[in-house]
Specification:
This protein is α+β, with helices and mostly antiparallel strands and 185 residues long. Helices cover 23% and strands 46% of the residues.
Length: 185
């Protein structure tokens, strides 16, 4: 009986140690290959909707650039439609478009499709010293997309979760989802 218990404990130890989640899922060469295959400028449409709700816009022309990370121009005029404070809405209209940079985290790679999560940096539009207040947009770190590198297509979501004006969080802000679909030319 003691020998069986020892064997079971040994098997459990081997199983637990093989499930180490600290190990990278993909090698650096696999990630470099994926980044290389996804590299390019994608032209398509961006639409915006509330996180769980109605669509705000239907397909505005947009481009995204994929290199070692993803860069996309985000039109804040679409966000303005969800802002009730006219002073803040005016500030966002004045800013116009911001550039969002997001790192890739790959979750699945197969012979044609890469599945990834995006980790966008917060966007900060400085203000102060006589200029309007600083605006900061905070993004969810749980949205991503898919790239079909065989057909040169990419689909992804970016989701602003918070809006800060000066040092105050704009509490009425409702989470949005910017959805991009485009092709490499």
């Amino acid at each position: 009986m003691k020998q069986i218990t020892t064997i079971i404990l040994f098997i459990a130890l081997v199983f637990i140690s093989s499930c180490n989640k600290d190990e990278p899922k993909f090698s650096s060469s696999e990630i470099q290959r994926a980044l290389f295959e996804m590299k390019g400028t994608y032209h398509g449409e961006m639409r915006v909707s509330y996180y769980h709700g109605e669509t705000i816009s239907e397909g505005n022309a947009c481009k995204a650039v994929s290199k070692d990370s993803l860069t996309v121009d985000m039109d804040l005029s679409l966000m303005v439609q969800s802002i009730t404070d006219e002073r803040i809405a005016s500030r966002l209209r004045d800013i116009g478009t911001v550039q969002v940079k997001a790192a890739y985290e790959f979750y699945q790679m197969d012979e044609q499709i890469y599945n990834f999560v995006l980790h966008p940096n917060d966007v900060v539009c400085p203000g102060g010293d006589g200029a309007p207040e600083t605006v900061k947009i905070v993004f969810s770190q749980h949205f991503g997309g898919d790239a079909d590198y065989y057909h040169h297509d990419i689909i992804f979501n970016l989701s602003p979760t918070e809006l800060w004006v000066g040092d105050k969080k704009y509490e009425p802000f409702q989470q949005l989802v910017y959805h991009f679909e485009g092709s490499y030319e």
